[in-house]
Structure formats: C-alpha cells, structure tokens
Design a protein that fits this description.
By secondary structure, this protein is of the alpha+beta class. It has one domain: Peptide deformylase (Peptide Deformylase), CATH 3.90.45. 29% of the residues lie in helices and 29% in strands. The protein has four helices and seven strands. It has helices at residues 26-41, 64-67, 131-144, 155-171; strands at residues 46-48, 58-61, 76-86, 90-97, 100-110, 112-118, 124-130. The strands form two sheets. It has a five-stranded antiparallel sheet. The longest helix is centred in the last third of the chain and has 17 residues, at 155-171. The relative contact order is 0.18. Bound molecules: nickel (II) ion.
C-alpha cells in the first residue's frame, strides 16, 4: 500500500474546498485503505482526504478505541458526506487535528447530527451520530470545506497558532519529496 503523508499548517491546500467523488471503484477503495493506514499510524481518529493533499469529499474515521481502548477497530469510510440535520443541543469537546500537531482547544458544536453519505461499496447510507463520533464527523466534514477547528477560536488565538506553525515551517523546512 502507498504510504500517505499528512500535510500540516500552514499548507494552503488545507483551505481548499474539496470536489465530490464521482465514482466509487477499486482505486478509491485502495485510497480509503491508505487513508485509514495513515490515520491509525498517526495515530488519529479521523482523517479527511485533503489532509493527504487530495481535494476529494471523502473521510475516514474510527472512534471505537477512543471510547474503549480494548475495543476492536471499527473503521468507517464516508464518501460525499452531507449533514442533513444538527441538534439544537450543543456540546463542548477538546479537539486536535493531525494537520495542526500538538495543539488542542475546546470547540462547541451540535451534540448530534444526521449525515448522508456513500459507503465504500458505493451504497447510500445515513447515520445518526452523537458523542465523539458527531464531533469527529463535523470536524472532518469541515476539512472538506476548507475549514479548520481553529476557525472556531478567537482571531487572536487562531492567529497565534498560525504564526507558530508558519515560524516552525520556516525554521525546519520539510525535505523535498523525491
Ligand atoms: Ni483535522
């Protein structure tokens, strides 16, 4: 399997609005598996395609071990996910992002959501998500729209984070990919 690299701030691709997936085929399923591998290796509980530089509306997640370390892996692949409805009730949870390493902040979002998506077999699905899964899906769907969790923070805090990562990138430029 191809190893995928996760892009981080201040990579401008993170601000792209991803395009819908048009066909679910073996190539896309392989890409989903590669995304899951990169997510588990990171380790993380969710990953959007744009985080590996691919502007397609697709995400993977697995919150099973977040709630119970002994739990079996429960990978999900959501293609062209769409939030159909959000609860009025809101909840605040600490979030992090594989594209903003080692930075965490509390974000308030709807407590539960209903999401329509296409699964890895190309079938239409709907899911009612609450708890960590609801937070995770909203965070990942934001990525598909070029939005990051730091956008929910005050401008002052957001600018601080962006400045920190921009400075880091300047001090230790990533080696050229050969
Ligand atoms: Ni993220």
């Amino acid at each position: 399997m191809a190893k995928l690299d996760i892009i981080t701030l201040p990579d401008r691709k993170l601000r792209l609005v991803s395009e819908p997936v048009e066909r679910v085929d073996d190539e896309l399923r392989r890409f989903a598996d590669d995304m899951l591998e990169a997510m588990y290796a990171a380790p993380g509980i969710g990953l959007a395609a744009i985080q590996v530089g691919v502007p397609r509306r697709m995400l993977v997640c697995d919150v099973a071990q977040r709630e119970d370390e002994e739990a079996e892996q429960d990978p999900m692949v959501l293609i062209n996910p769409q939030i159909l409805s959000s609860s009025d009730g809101r909840t605040t949870r600490e979030e992090g992002c594989l594209s903003i390493p080692d930075y965490f902040a509390e974000v308030e979002r709807p407590e539960s959501i209903r999401v329509a998506y296409i699964d890895r077999d190309g079938k239409n699905q709907e899911i009612e998500a609450s708890g960590v899964l609801a937070t995770c899906l909203q965070h990942e769907i934001d990525h598909l729209n070029g939005k990051l969790f730091i956008d929910y923070l005050s401008k002052l805090r957001r600018d601080m984070v962006i400045k920190r990562f921009t400075k880091q990138a300047r001090l230790s430029p990533r080696p050229a990919a050969l």
